[in-house]
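Hi there, hope your week has been kind to you so far. Would you mind checking whether the tokens look sensible for this chain? I owe you a coffee for this, so here goes:
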Amino acid sequence: MAMVYNWQLGRAMTFPYDEKHPRRQFAFVFNTNRCIGCQTCTMACKSTWTFSKGQEYMWWNNVESKPYGGYPQHWDAKLLAMLEAANPGRQSWNAATADVGSKPYGAFEGKTIFEAGPTHVGPEGAQVALGYLPTDAEWRHPNIHEDTAAGGRWNEGQHGASAQLPEHRVWFFHLARICNHCTYPGCLASCPRQAIYKRPEDGIVLIDQERCRGYRKCVEGCPYKKSMYRGTTRTSEKCVGCYPRIEGKDELLGSDGAPCETRCMSACVGKIRLQGLVAIAEDGTWSHDPANPLYFLIRERRVALPLYPQFGTEPNGFYIPPRWVPRGYLTQMFGPGIDHALEQYSCPDRELLAVLQLFRTQRQILFRFAIERGPKVAEIPVILPSGRERVQEIYNDTVIGFNKFDKEVVRITIEEPTFERLKEHHLNSI
């Protein structure tokens, strides 16, 4: 086992292969506060990539209702229980050691799936990455318990209590998921055939169908269960990051070679998704680039957090957490950066509010943004999750997004303009 540095854990960890990083990394931010669970993204991916025989149960993109939903069912709860059994009472964070640059969430002092793997010995020996094979029954429901809320029984006089921030007594939220194209993928680590690899140009994780023999070790080792076995070909398949779009080779988009967002991203009705490519230094750290929308949200403002960073794969999918969910649940899912992220999102400052407008406003990937300052239009008192009160100043700024070739591809203001159609030309005008 080699030692690699995981910035999300704030420490070095063991991994089967030596540290090696792509020039740029495919990454994305999902805003769970906006997701309405319409499954448009799910069907966009299904109709593009997994519509063939043997792929019926494959949902490379899915949206599950938490806390009870999951695809496959209980994927996260089962692995968390396995990690706890491998390291009882010690799966914890030391947030006091947080450093914005090298370990923004502090240090994880428990065991990752790679460090706990050797403790799980089966008929074939110790696991490279702690994991399990889901049963057929667990794959049957893409969103079991859809819109099912958690909470106690209703008691007289408590109706108002369920709708009060910062935490609702009765709650659920939609968690959209695709492959995280991890920096240290559990699927790649577990494959005995070395059939899984990360592309050096964009960090997308792919499976070489010629080398794959269908051992399903990748399915077992992926903590997010986004590698799936296809019985008709006896090989595994997974999200390919719509790489023709990332390469700028999708002729239907007419993007002149500029990288475009994936199918699930561009189909999103709720405008919860922002996808990009972040520059990676030779040592694996993110190159300082605060003008990149993803870098700004993830590293600069830390408003978007990784999903289950304690697994140790350093996922490149990040989430703006839902404001109304109990903090203990969110901390388990997104790590100890929850309080900071929610404070930032609940009362965004001028720059953050502008960048949040860029979600799903274009098809091309944004490599840079700029803000043209406008007049102040409002002052709104806001009660933060901590209970403190702050006055949010809103300015009618204009945010501009630029593609790979530094060409402007989107321009949007904080206050979107209203257009009135002339009654002389339109029957349904006001």
